[in-house]
Amino acid sequence: MTRPRIVVLRALGLGDFLTAVPALRALADAFPGHALVLAAPAPLRQLAQLARVADAIVPAAPLAPLPDALAEPELAVNLHGSGPESHRVLTALRPRRLLAFAHPDVPETGGRTSTKHAAGAACSRRAESRRTPHGWTSPGPP
To answer: Which of 38, 42, 84, 135 has the fewest CB atoms within 10 Å, i.e. the most exposed one?
Structure first.
């Protein structure tokens, strides 16, 4: 049986990738039965593999369509940005659920602007006080 898939878009540079590492680890912890696929620039592939933040890394260019093989994931997470362009890259995959900033131009996000990052908030709530397989602990007692 195939594991449900989470597709995470983070198609930016090195610094942006490094800031996404805690969110990627929190996603892996919050959804242990899911395969986590990171869509990121090809030059970051080796670093992403060394950081062990995803089960698979798919090359992605900023705001370019993602491969059809990623279609219909259980969850799509936008760590790329808050604008409608990156949201549309993920909604084109027809995910069952989308975690992203709310944006009035993208009805799938709830249509309201928001200052709170949905993916980070959801993951931090689920990962609270649990040790992850990556060797770090989130705030709170073990």
So the answer is: 135
* DSSP notation for 28-94: HHH-TTSEEEEEE-GGGHHHHHHHT--SEEEE--TTPPPPGGG-S-SEEEE-S-SSHHHHHHHHTT-
Contacts of 33 (CB under 8 A, 6+ apart): 3, 4
Task: For tokens 């993208």, name the residue.
Answer: 106
Contact 119, 109 (CB under 8 A): no
Least confident of 24-28, 79-83, 99-103, 131-135: 131-135
User: The tokens 């992403």 sit on which residue?
Assistant: 48
Please write the tens of the pLDDT for every residue from 38-47: 999 999 999 9
pTM of the model: 0.75
Q: Is 103 exposed, middle or buried (0-12, 13-18, 19+ CB in 10 A)?
A: buried
- Note whether 101 and 78 are within 8 A (CB): yes
> Cα–Cα distance between 97 and 122 in angstroms, integer?
13
